[in-house]
Amino acid sequence: MPEFSDEAEVTHVAKRDMRVALLAHRRRLTAADRAEAAARVQAELVALVRRLRPIRMTAYVPVGSEPGGPELPDVLHAALPPGGELLLPVLRPDLDLDWAGYAGPDTLTAAGRGMREPTGPRLGPSVITDVDLLVVPALAVDRRGLRLGRGGGSYDRALARVRESALTVVPLHDGELVPAVPAEPHDRPVSAVVTPADGLRTLDAAGQGVAPHTSAGRTRGA
Prior knowledge:
13 strands, EC 6.3.3.2, 8-stranded mixed β-sheet, ligase, 3-stranded mixed β-sheet, 28% helix, ATP binding, 5-formyltetrahydrofolate cyclo-ligase, disordered N terminus, alpha/beta, Rossmann fold
């Protein structure tokens, strides 16, 4: 037991230090850098949504220097097929994630931690089990698909509910796809990343990049 506790503390410190470095790098990006990165990330994700035609997907509202820009929900919502639904996260008091449908920028409200959340009916944490495509935030992702979040554990809980056939994609700035991030047993891998320079890149547990996905669970035909 002491060995496990020591190892967990080392991992916690390593995660904290990596977060500090990554956030500092993001703060150094100029407004022009962020805008250019957002445009490229949005274009890649829109192309993915149009190709996969998901019935239901999730995203979030990027804030500050997060890649994708604050318009990300709008551009993804517009790319969905007729009847497609975009869900955005709602942070619960226990730091788990609830979800609500996105119906335009006027339906968002300011929430804790600088986030903006939808004001529509809450659909419950388990609705994520019925999602085809998930766009989720992270500070970095490694080549095994393990992501480094901001430390609250909200997305680790949410990703634990996602079915295996769903596609999970993280928008990143260039340089944030890294060889390895410190990992703990509860950390959940993602399927792919999108970066401004390299576009969509899928990942596997062996740490090797593979070809882009052509389907994501339950999708509409062309």
